[in-house]
């Protein structure tokens, strides 16, 4: 038994070395030696297949980013990600996340201890820094476009309104009760409140501004019952209140009014008016979870 172990270990080491040589050539075909006993034609075919798969996942997730960047810059970013990016997840859909992280990380943090030659490190580092300098909206647009994939893949529940055996209240009466009782506030599903310096939600492949201007924006994002991502622009105060609703256990109307008064120095009357306006709006987009017990 002991006599066969060294040979077995040696075989594993040989395989690992061959595998490393294989992946190194896939990433760096112009500098890495081609693995032994493999035709260059076959290696190139395999590399093209992997590169095209990686590119397609990225382009599918970030079509607006691709449209707004010069084609040469976009191609160089994907090429550098393919060479030096690290994908730790086994899921294909995470390739897009790793691409975003690759572009957003500090170059020194991303490439140190990766075995990247100094000259190549400088080229890649300079490319990423220069791209962010020329296109300061890039980080926010990447994050916003990635949210579409994230919201689609995330498991979320949708709570139906619960009236039990009781009749559904007439809408006007329902709204009156909702706005005049200190009831617990619950949303029907998980929401994301995001803040951007640029109005990225207004951009598209066909409507990409030549010179994007700063316009601070708060957004509410969630997936509706039809599994479609909904995006709404929010006033910053409403963004703050919705964050409170989602983060505080058993959040009530009274608590929202109290916290809004503290944060803004509004009078209690002004805060109550603002909170009621928010609740009316949440009811209008079917995001407010109504429970019969809370209306008794």
TrEMBL record:
Pfam short name (any one): DUF2063
Annotated Putative DNA-binding domain residues: 17-103
Domain NGO1945-like C-terminal: 190-275
InterPro entries: DUF2063 (IPR018640), DUF2063_N_sf (IPR044922), NGO1945-like_C (IPR054098)
Gene3D superfamilies hit by this protein: 3.90.930.50, DUF2063
Protein name (Swiss-Prot/TrEMBL): Uncharacterized protein
Organism of this sequence: Aquirhabdus parva
Taxonomic lineage of the native organism: Bacteria, Pseudomonadati, Pseudomonadota, Gammaproteobacteria, Moraxellales
């Amino acid at each position: 038994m002991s006599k066969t172990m060294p040979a077995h270990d040696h075989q594993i080491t040989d395989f690992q070395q061959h595998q490393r040589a294989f992946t190194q050539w896939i990433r760096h075909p112009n500098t890495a030696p081609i693995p032994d006993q493999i035709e260059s034609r076959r290696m190139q075919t395999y590399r093209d297949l992997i590169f095209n798969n990686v590119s397609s996942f990225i382009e599918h997730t970030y079509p607006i980013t691709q449209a707004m960047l010069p084609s040469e810059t976009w191609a160089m970013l994907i090429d550098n990600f393919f060479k030096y990016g690290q994908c730790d997840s086994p899921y294909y859909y995470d390739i897009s996340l790793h691409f975003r992280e690759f572009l957003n990380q500090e170059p020194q943090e991303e490439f140190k201890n990766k075995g990247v030659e100094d000259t190549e490190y400088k080229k890649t580092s300079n490319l990423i820094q220069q791209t962010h300098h020329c296109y300061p909206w890039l980080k926010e647009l990447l994050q916003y476009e990635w949210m579409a994939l994230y919201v689609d893949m995330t498991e979320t529940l949708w709570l139906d309104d619960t009236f039990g055996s009781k009749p559904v209240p007439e809408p006007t009466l329902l709204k009156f009760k909702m706005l005049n009782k200190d009831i617990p506030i619950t949303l029907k599903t998980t929401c994301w409140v995001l803040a951007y310096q640029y109005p990225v939600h207004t951009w598209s492949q066909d409507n990409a501004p030549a010179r994007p201007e700063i316009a601070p924006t708060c957004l509410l994002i969630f997936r509706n019952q039809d599994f479609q991502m909904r995006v709404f622009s929010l006033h910053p105060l409403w963004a703050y209140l919705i964050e409170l609703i989602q983060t505080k256990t058993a959040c009530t109307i009274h608590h929202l009014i109290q916290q809004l008064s503290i944060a803004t120095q509004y009078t209690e009357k002004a805060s109550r008016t603002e909170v009621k306006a928010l609740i009316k709006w949440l009811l209008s987009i079917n995001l407010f979870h109504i429970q019969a017990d809370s209306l008794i």
